Amino acid sequence: MRIVLIGAPGGGKGTQAKLLVEKYGIPQISTGDLLREAVAKATSLGLRAKAAMDAGQLVSDDIVLGMIKERLSQADTQKGFILDGFPRNIPQAEALDALLDEVGQSLQTSLLIDVEFDILMQRLTGRRTCSSCGQMYNIYTSPPRMENRCDKCGGDLVHRADDNEETIGNRLRVYEAQTAPLVEYYRKQGKLRSVKGVGEIQEIFSAVERILNSLPSAVAEAAPAKVVEAPAKKIAAKKKVTKKKAKKKVSKKKAKKKVSKKKAKKKVTKKKAKKKVSKKKAKKKVTKKKTKKKVTKKKAKKKVAKKKTKKKVSKKKAKSRR
Fold first, then answer.
1. Is 191 considered catalytic here?
2. Of 127, 128, 191, 193, which is the active-site residue?
């Protein structure tokens, strides 16, 4: 599981990162921690970073990426990692993608902890940190049981000098201008997942878990599928079943074809029978007409014959009178 956490200062990235480390057993890689460690150990990258900071300059992306690359070479990152605090802008995100591709550990998802501006102001101005164990509190939302004392180790709680409204307002404006565009960058890659960072810490973490467990790659890593080879007999039996099904399908198709042919033949025979009947009817009509004509001719002949006989009779009577 390879994750980048993004969100505004005070959004709860650090808190959720610690819970993810406990749950999944993968390291949190904070660029701030890497810088402090490299400077303390006086590594080559640490010395370059210290020189930049002493000169009042920002540590270059090349130095930070070099530190990330060194950290990823360690054995505990093979199962995954949680990047916190980097990238902060699009050029850094592009450079990080190139680095991760180079070492064969491409990013799987970018998780946005989304919190509104007013809530961020309250969280940051009320933030207190244990100077001994690093446990974080908030005097407004999650205060310690004893004022200025850590519940875990009893250490002193410290209020950071830059946790004031003016400084925090500037930090949030810088975030909006530079880091917020990362949301669109990872959305276009299809890697962005978002969770509302408001409510109880455990409730937020449960929402984070649901998101991460829904990732196909995360599921595959958590429970790799076992490939079980089926015995040869089972394979043969399956083949026989499929063959039988195929034969049944073929026989059904043939039966359907026969039925359709029979229906077609019946239709043809019906049509032929209808034609024969119509022909017979036509012949009967013709014969009827012919018989009617014969009858009319006979009647006409009889009438002519009667007329002739009448004429002969009239002629004979005329002769006898004379």
1. no
2. 127
Q: Mark whether 127 is an active-site residue.
A: yes
Q: Which of 48, 50, 69, 88 is catalytic?
A: 88
pLDDT (tens digit per residue) in 234-265: 445 555 555 666 666 656 666 666 666 666 66
Distance of alpha carbon 221 from alpha carbon 8, whole angstroms: 30
Query: If you write DSSP's letter for every residue of 227-261 in order, what string do you get?
Result: --PPPHHHHHHHHHHHHHHHHHHHHHHHHHHHHHH
Q: Is 36 a catalytic residue?
A: no
Asked if residue 125 lies in contact with residue 165, where contact means CB atoms within 8 angstroms, the answer is yes
| Active-site entry in 23, 79, 160, 276 | 160
Name all domains of the chain by residue range, CATH numbers in brackets.
2-114+169-222 (3.40.50.300)
Report how far apart, in Å, the C-alpha atoms of 75 and of each of 1, 79, 81, 226 are.
Answer: 14, 9, 11, 25
Q: Please pick, among 13, 18, 71, 191, the residue that the annotation labels catalytic.
A: 13
Distance CA 86, CA 97 (A): 12
Q: Is 173 a catalytic residue?
A: no
Rg (CA), the chain: 50
Q: How far apart are CA 82 and CA 76, in angstroms?
A: 12
List, as one string, the DSSP characters of 11-27: SSHHHHHHHHHHHH---
Q: Read off the pLDDT of residues 4-36 as tens digits, 9 standing for 90 and up.
A: 999 988 888 888 999 999 999 999 999 888 999
From 48, 50, 69, 171, active-site residue:
171
To which residue do tokens 């059904």 refer?
252
Instruction: Mark whether 160 is an active-site residue.
Output: yes
